[in-house]
Amino acid sequence: MEFSCTGPPTNFYSNGNFSDEENGSNGEGEEEPALDWEKEMRKKVEEIEEMRELEKKAEELQSKAEESESEDREETEEEKRMRVRKELEKVAREQAERRETAQLMFELGQKAYGKGMYARAIEFFEAALTIIPRSTLFGGEIQIWLAMAYEANNRHKDCIALYRQLEMSHPSINIRRQAANLRYILQAPKLKISQEEMVTIPLIGSAYDSYAATWTDKYKDKDQRLSGSTTNQLPSSRDYLADLLMWRPPVGLEKNTAFWVALTLWLGLVGAALILQR
Q: Into how many domains does the chain fold?
């Protein structure tokens, strides 16, 4: 009696492009954000990949059941079905455990990469790839990060080789596009800029010093001009006394008593004022 666990596997990666098929199924009235749509698509891809692995395992179990059918005729069809079901459940649990372990290794590799520990990140990414198949979407993402870690760890040839491999053979068009773009950025010719084309930015300190020196000289000259004008407007007491000693009375007032009395009083007041000022 022939046993069949499931139908033929779905050819999800036909033509190497799953984004176009999904976009065709989503109408223009899609109102969910692009990020939620991308997460949903990724979840569907992972479920389909797991289903394909389960289908392969079911085919193996079915072939084993057919081989043992000729040896043991006493096992009923129901018992065979239960045995295959238990085997599939066991395989599903093992796959979930492996995926969790690979996810943990992938996250540890990302953290190590963010901290600049590129050699350690390479170890984590390579360990995750021993669990996750490289042809899956998750395996492609791990390889993209592994290539970036190669480049950061001065392994340029390994990085370019991995990008080319992903670009040429990975089933996911998204992974192929990312690998092609990153490889193009790394291999793009570098522009040569001459000394005349470079922009020179003066140092802040030198500019400030020149400004401060200009400001000091400017206001120093201004202060000197102000002090000079003040000196001219207010002559010193020495010059005033010299002019007073050289003064001669007008003609005809030498014998005028009232004039000399007034002059004496005035000189006394001036002398007292000078003494008090000191």
A: 1
pLDDT(122) > 90: yes
pLDDT, greater one: 208 or 21: 208
CA distance 265 to 262: 5
Question: Which residues span the domain enclosing 179?
Answer: 84-188
Would the pLDDT of 159 be above 50? yes
Element (H, E) at 97: helix 77-114
CATH assignment of the domain containing 171? 1.25.40.10
Residue 44 falls inside a structural domain: no
- Claim: this prediction has a pTM higher than 0.90: no
Domain assignment present for residue 159? The answer is: yes
- Please return the burial class of 55, using the count of CB atoms within 10 Å of its CB with bins 0-12, 13-18 and 19+: middle
d(CA 109, CA 122): 7
Task: Confirm whether 238 is domain-assigned.
Answer: no
Q: How far apart are CA 21 and CA 79, in angstroms?
A: 40
Confidence of residue 199 (pLDDT cuts 50, 70, 90): low
The whole-angstrom distance between residue 160's C-alpha and the CA centroid of its chain comes to: 23
Q: Cα(272)–Cα(270) distance, rounded to whole angstroms?
A: 5
